Amino acid sequence: NILAVIHKVSEGGDWFDPSYSSRRSQAEAAGLLWGGYHFGTRQYSGEQQAASFLAACQPGPSTVIALDLEPNDRNPSNTMRIDQAEAFVYAVQRATGRLPLVYTHPEWANGSKFGRRSVSLGQPIGPDSILARCDLWLADYREQPVVPYAWANKGWKLWQYVADESVNDAAHGTVPRAVAGLTHCDRNLFAGDEAALYRYWRGGRGRV
After folding, report:
1. 132, 86 Cβ separation under 8 angstroms
2. Predicted local confidence at residue 160, as pLDDT
3. Of the chain's two ends, which shows fewer C-beta atoms within 10 Å, N or C?
4. Which of 36, 47, 49, 41 is nearest to 4 (CA)?
5. Sign of the C-alpha dihedral, residues 42, 44, 49, 52?
């Protein structure tokens, strides 16, 4: 039941994953749906980061694109701000005609202190932000995820329910979700059945 891969493309404005293109070719040849995400940072403007991401991602009509908005645990002072994230989304919208997914944690999106360094966005993402118009890719490893305030009326589109899980270190919760032969890989659920996933991926998701 693994149907799609969303691969890291870039971080900030000057780091790019060298394995992105080759893995994309391998995944698409295997019949998997493909997507790419950008890890946002502070040292470049949102517009600059969007341009770098799109140039490296080369999204096609069936490529899901996403912004990873979370604390930079290795360098908290280099964490993306809300205004930079909004500028990134506007730039992607202008360039592609669609909105990216926004990947975030509920506490982070709600402005609470989060992560190993207990940093915060300083304020919650509001429902009037362009970020709230984007589909939500929610990272929450509890058995029942909590939807951030800004997406309360919309819910999540993808739920990352586990990160780096192995058979001996299963996801939180009473329902085991280990996948035979696959370990140490973030995994996600889609809010819908298989047919809806294909329609979403290949259709007009995020188009404005």
Report:
1. no
2. 94
3. N
4. 36
5. negative
Q: Give the Cα separation of 9 and 35 in Å (integer).
A: 9
What is the rounded CA–CA span in Å between residue 83 and residue 5?
A: 28
- Give yes or no for a contact between 155 and 189, defined as CB atoms under 8 angstroms apart: no
pTM for this entry? 0.93
Question: In the structure encoding, which two tokens stand for residue 142, read together?
Answer: 């509890």
Mean pLDDT, rounded, of the chain: 91
Q: How many CB atoms lie within 10 A of CB 4?
A: 17
DSSP the chain: ---EEEEEEEETTTEE-TTHHHHHHHHHHTT-EEEEEEE-BSSS-HHHHHHHHHHHH---TTEEEEEE----TT-GGGBPPHHHHHHHHHHHHHHHSBPPEEEE-HHHHTT--BTTTTB--SSPPPTTSHHHHSPEEEE--SSS----GGGTTT-EEEEEEESS-BTTBPPSSSS---BTTB-S--EEEESS-HHHHHHHHHTTTTB-
28 C-beta neighbours (distance < 10 Å), count: 15
The CA angle 39-44-159, to the nearest 5 degrees, is: 20
108-112, 121-125, 174-178 — which is least confidently predicted? 174-178
